[in-house]
Amino acid sequence: MALIVHKYGGTSMGSTERIRNVAKRVAKWARAGYQMVVVPSAMSGETNRLLGLAKELAPARVMPAYQRELDMLAATGEQASSALLAIALQAEGVDAVSYAGWQVPIRTDSAFTKARIESIDDQRVRADLAAGKVVIITGFQGIDSEGNVTTLGRGGSDTSAVAVAAALKADECLIYTDVDGVYTTDPRVVPEARRLRSISFEEMLEMASLGSKVLQIRSVEFAGKYKVPIRVLSSFTPWDIPIEEEARSGTLITFEEDENMEQALVSGIAFNRDEAKISVLGVPDKPGIAYQILGAVADANIEVDMIIQNVSKDGKTDFSFTVHRNDYARTVDLLKEKVLPKLGAEAVIGDTKICKVSIVGIGMRSHVGVASKMFRTLSEEGINIQMISTSEIKTSVVIDEKYMELAVRALHRAFDLDQEPAAA
Amino acid sequence: MALIVHKYGGTSMGSTERIRNVAKRVAKWARAGYQMVVVPSAMSGETNRLLGLAKELAPARVMPAYQRELDMLAATGEQASSALLAIALQAEGVDAVSYAGWQVPIRTDSAFTKARIESIDDQRVRADLAAGKVVIITGFQGIDSEGNVTTLGRGGSDTSAVAVAAALKADECLIYTDVDGVYTTDPRVVPEARRLRSISFEEMLEMASLGSKVLQIRSVEFAGKYKVPIRVLSSFTPWDIPIEEEARSGTLITFEEDENMEQALVSGIAFNRDEAKISVLGVPDKPGIAYQILGAVADANIEVDMIIQNVSKDGKTDFSFTVHRNDYARTVDLLKEKVLPKLGAEAVIGDTKICKVSIVGIGMRSHVGVASKMFRTLSEEGINIQMISTSEIKTSVVIDEKYMELAVRALHRAFDLDQEPAAA
Q1: Model's pTM, two decimal places?
Q2: Which residues form the ACT domain (chains A, B) (predicted)?
Q3: Per-residue DSSP letters for A47-68?
Q4: CATH, range B263-424
């Protein structure tokens, strides 16, 4: 019989009443004969409550010893919710057992508060599944080689669920969340936005990294690496809808380009206005300038997103990139003080009132003209493009932030995203 | 340098403000050069909150699988408070690390919700102490041979602290609590009750088992078995009182009868009115009657305290014992239905309006007349004694509960407990 992993977020686990509903849903699947593994988050608000207490006591200097304790503290939230779910399942008459990350064990590196999973031992879980038990595994946490508790960082329960599904070679990993799937774009901006029945993991990866908040990006990377089919679906449907219906709902994130996949050129439109652009103008065009500029930025622990260098003219070039808006002032100061004099560049300019809009679609790989259609659409709306960056399945532009909604709506229409595509 | 274990109860850990005070106190000891291990309880109210959630979800039938999950759940309370204390110590500039029971590990049997400690590995803790760290170990919990989390039952943190002190051969285990020591009797009943500077662990064992709630009885048993000196002291003294003063405060529970020990005949008076007495009258005096009566009671999982059988007369005897008041009706019914007919006894009678008053003192071992002084004192007050039971260092009587305060006050005065005894 198929092995299924369910993941429930903090909202779904937010009260005993909701935990009881989760238990009823899981019990339904277990009674239908599926081998069930469940990965719950902490009850909503609990992680914030715990970290709030820590903050009141925090040492002035953040040190690894402090971060180790933060993980000890935060990990209790999922341990408690997992035990409660096991109890709720037992109350439904279903044999269930909960394991903390260290009990499975889920082995991670020692990067406290943002650890990465290295391996998962499936022996104990398989034995329980074979004995007919539902196995509950705490999300968000693991154990390092020294026996310390680690956590995976915010949203890490998605990654836990996918990693567990990969280790167990699960048939599908169902991520229950407060949205009912992945949309062509944010329905708050485009009311015609349509839920996708399926999306390739590469597209999902781009959508996630571009600011679509449905899934934590690392969980998508994990799913791609281990070829775990993920389904994102709503935890607000009644628990007793027929399994066949539930199993087809939401959005399937698949690693196979099978025949049933939607064959649209563009699957979705992502956008965000968290970024700011910075340009270093009149840079002498010689080897090493990218490193001299971005090395200094990276050393200051500032993350860079888009990077653009144009061809040079008269031995000089302009170098542009985007950073998070919160890092904008710090980055400009850094460049002016440390980089500009050494580099002999002319000026550093920037703008925080920008946004990035991206079209994403695996169809771009094999179809020319997708990017040019995007540019034409924006031009017809009178929107000036400030920067362009492309990858194999994505084209991103930076525009004035005041045009964001206009651009997203025009592109959504231009690529017919409001209409169900014909199967190939 | 001396190795000291501190234990702090839930009230002492009840808020970030209080945790900060605990950290300051521990830091004071660490800075004075002591090797420090700290065992905290969960923040007050937390264990009840968690078990309350479990109760809302609980299965109808209590099964080991359910109790396993209760332990997973409840153990999170101490893990969180321990991490918070480590953080508070780091904020004080003291290097600190917290370990859950399974990390030490503290190995227990698999009796979920009331596990017993089997062994404690001291390697990891010793390495940290050698490195100058304060080590915080979660109270109340351990790990069984299957890798499941277990808890020691209510008040188990006392036992954890003493067990850790025993495993590390600590010089002293300081139990910080909301009373400032062990008293000759309950000061709410006898205002002249006096704090004892020291008490032998055997006396403490009797006091604890007789209803003095200062320490969990199992922690006292542990202390006696491994000869760990325990000091009970107040967590409400200012954290910055001089260490020499703090180290002499409270009550020392010692396993040595050294010269400095108080040499009173009687150290304290314990009492409780939780019991009820039951008598089976006119029992044929032949082998096996005690087993026939108490075997049936034990099979019904009812705990028996005092047991008294008098010499027989005309081939018949009366058999009396006490049980918890909550078990009274059930026990009487059981005896009438199942035991009386088989035994051929005449009647089962009982009384719930009784109380037990006990004098406890290691001095009784070598001094005759202590018990008779007790009986005389009660007689002078016109108090009728219903049952008597004695052990090597204790004499207990059952009397009408309305005379309880009168009896305790009279005995306290008769044995000069309001006065500091002369050192031997």
Answers
A1: 0.83
A2: 278-357, 359-424
A3: HHHHHHHHHHH--SS--HHHHH
A4: 3.30.2130.10
